[in-house]
């Protein structure tokens, strides 16, 4: 067991249940294609990282998917809102003995392995590492101890999450990473590095 652990929160890729805001513009089938591409990107950027890696599924653990059991350990997210689910995931890994834990989602084509590696380096002399997202949330959170406060009383999924979290961390030494664009809407997709025009070229998309 290593001292560093990466937590990857994912949604099970089901038609009509992922990227619903994006689907309002491009439809459920294309939104599912985008989300599967996001999952692949996240796997490709994390698979070689020098840390233990955990995938937390939202509804059910899936065998024989893109997340190889040789590289990723698989767990199920707890119930409750996003804050409760993240808090439970952090507590689970700290109880397992990990010293530095970083959580990411699977919503960013702009997220690279080097960003995560840098976050693990920064947490060495900081209490918290946080990567703000352009929509007012955050795409990465690194802790080296459980912190229940930052997971409570947040309006998850809104533009207030990052600022509210930073307010809760006023007494902590924080490292802020670069602001990145996560994919929730079609405008987000167009601003990203994704070849979104491929959706119109893909014959499997009707």
Automatic annotation (TrEMBL):
GO terms for molecular function: transferase activity. InterPro entries: Nucleotide-diphossugar_trans, Trfase_1_rSAM/seldom-assoc. The keyword Transferase applies. Keywords: Transferase. It comes from the Bacteria. The keyword Transferase applies. This is Glycosyltransferase. It comes from Flavobacterium sandaracinum.
């Amino acid at each position: 067991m290593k001292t560093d652990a990466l937590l990857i929160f994912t949604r099970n890729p089901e038609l009509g249940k992922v990227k619903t805001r994006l689907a309002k513009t491009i439809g459920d089938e294309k939104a599912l294609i985008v989300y599967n591409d996001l999952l692949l990107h996240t796997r490709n950027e994390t698979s070689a990282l020098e840390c233990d890696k955990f995938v937390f599924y939202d509804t059910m653990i899936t065998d024989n998917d893109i997340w190889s059991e040789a590289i990723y350990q698989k767990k199920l997210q707890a119930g409750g809102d996003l804050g409760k689910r993240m808090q439970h995931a952090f507590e689970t890994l700290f109880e397992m003995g990990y010293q530095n834990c970083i959580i990411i989602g699977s919503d960013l084509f702009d997220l690279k392995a080097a960003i995560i590696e840098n976050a693990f380096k920064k947490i060495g002399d900081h209490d918290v590492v946080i990567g703000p997202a352009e929509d007012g949330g955050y795409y990465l959170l690194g802790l080296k101890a459980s912190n229940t406060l930052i997971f409570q009383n947040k309006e998850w999924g809104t533009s207030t999450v990052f600022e509210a979290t930073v307010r809760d961390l006023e007494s902590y030494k924080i490292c802020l990473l670069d602001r990145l664009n996560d994919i929730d809407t079609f405008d987000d997709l167009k601003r990203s590095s994704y070849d979104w025009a491929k959706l119109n070229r893909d014959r499997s998309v009707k």
